Amino acid sequence: MRRTLMGTLLLATGLALSGPRASAQPKPAGQAAPAKPGSQTEVTVDVRQGKLGLGLPKPLLATGAGLDADGVNSNFTEVLRRDLEDAGPFALLKDKLPATVEASTVKPWLDAGAEWVLSMKVAKTGEVVTVTLQVLDVKATAQGEGKQLRYAFSKNYSGNTSLLRRIAHTMADDLVDRLTGDRGIANTRIVFVRQMAPGIKELFQVDRDGANPIELTRYGSLTLSPTVAADGRLAYVTYKGGSPEIWGQKKPGIPHERLYPNSSAGAQGSCYAPVWSPDGKRLAFTQSDRRGNSDIVVLDVQTGRVRKLTDGGFINTEPSWNPAGTQIAFTSDREGGPQVYLMEEDGSNVRRLTVEGSYNASPAWSPNGAMIAYVSRFEGKFDLFVFKLGEGKAYQVTTGVASSESPAWSPDERRLVFSSNRGGSMQIWTTDLSGNTVKRLTEFNFCQSAKWTRSR
Amino acid sequence: MRSVRNLFILGSSLGLITVLGCKKPEPTPEPPPATITKSEPPPAEVKTPTVDTTKPVDMSAAKYAEFQKAASAALKDINFDFDRSDIRDADKPKLQAIASFMKSFGSARIMIEGHCDERGTVEYNLALGDRRAFAAQNYLSGLGVNRDRMGTISYGKEKPKAMGQNEESFFINRRGEFKLQN
Q: Is the pTM here over 0.90, yes or no?
């Protein structure tokens, strides 16, 4: 999936995406524990591209607690390893490593290039498992001549044994946070639409690593376009009543109910593309009129009142809020083909965002507000682009392998989740913003319309 | 359940001349519009069709078969160009046939489905499907079929008919479908 030279050249015409935003850059490896200049403890930063050398020996299991070593390995240690490899700022050490973390192995860890080594003990009481984490600061310990182990970070994690994977994810995020100051995304989930049979689609979710698939709806109907509120509430479109309606949750954890059409509004057409406002109180969505046009409306979920933001006899759809909830990006064909526009939350001050290309759609405002991802038809294929608002320029992310659609941001703003048929059938994939690290998430029959969330 | 309803409604349309005679005539045909790009006044509220429910009449199997045959002969898909909702000249005879069917069977109700090919976004295609369904409804209305007898719904690109990833399949999938409702 590596970009070809031609792809790179195309990008070079003003479309090259720089690395992740500066504040999210991992701190240089030396910063976690500064080495003495010229000392032999200096690690080969150039080889690791600024990543921190991390040792991950197998955790020590408490004896007599009924812990299943294979289960801990597959549901915890390997999960953690993959999370840390995917996270970005760590270089996991692999060869000729000590098996333990103690005074006598500090030197071997140091020689292996480790800056941090995870010392973990797993215990179990009844069905509750506890993982005690101590992160050995190798350099600091070595500088103290190894007599007293020094730790960069320590924390205990506990939960039901069924939550081992989640403990690993949380630990990985804590380590990324500790190193970079930004929370990782190991403990996140992706909600998406899965086709069960022709014309029948349901909502599912999986963990970020593709594990733990959960069925969220079972309507035996066409169910589309999930959106996840900051508190985890779902909303979506379902045809289960015959025509497309907005269903979802007014409070976390309660059964799903019809949110729109409702009794307090007037004439109500088909509804599409719901998206929760950042404060979770409002839903922006698309409503068709009986003339075949579509407008963006905002529903106050508690009062049931709706306000129409666009009007003019065109297609207006795919609303996406900015993080402050004060503006909405959307797609409209008011000037011919679909283009991305911005407007204030009251519908005023409409201005066009995308200028190049004849088909630009599906805007997704980034969590920090500085970027808008969207889909553009480019050389006959649909690809993901990112518009940087500060620069007023668009950058291409995916390149022409197949169609890429429905971008949504990772909570840390470093990746996009999207649907693509690049592997044959339509599946959910993720990519970094350079388009170089593309990973497949699902292997079901047909999947689409993914959203990425911390809150479920 | 469904077939009983079919028989009953058809019975009321074919058998009860007096009832039909009392019904409001179809409105005068408007000229079929081209494309819908401008905002129009809000449409009249859609009412459920007034069908006489007091005198169910047995429909013979032969008449029911005739109705079904006429429906399947008339209710053929129409197609659209990419990202367009204009009625193509080639499809106008098909819409004429549908209008004739709707006039011959005065209680027939149809749902017009707007569909799209797989290119483009899920949501934009749902909106485009609505526009296509409405374009067909509007054309039929212009041919004298009461809008109240024609519902519209969009399935966007969610229910493709042909699975190929080529223009031939795309053309089949960019369609309006006409489904009998009774």
A: no
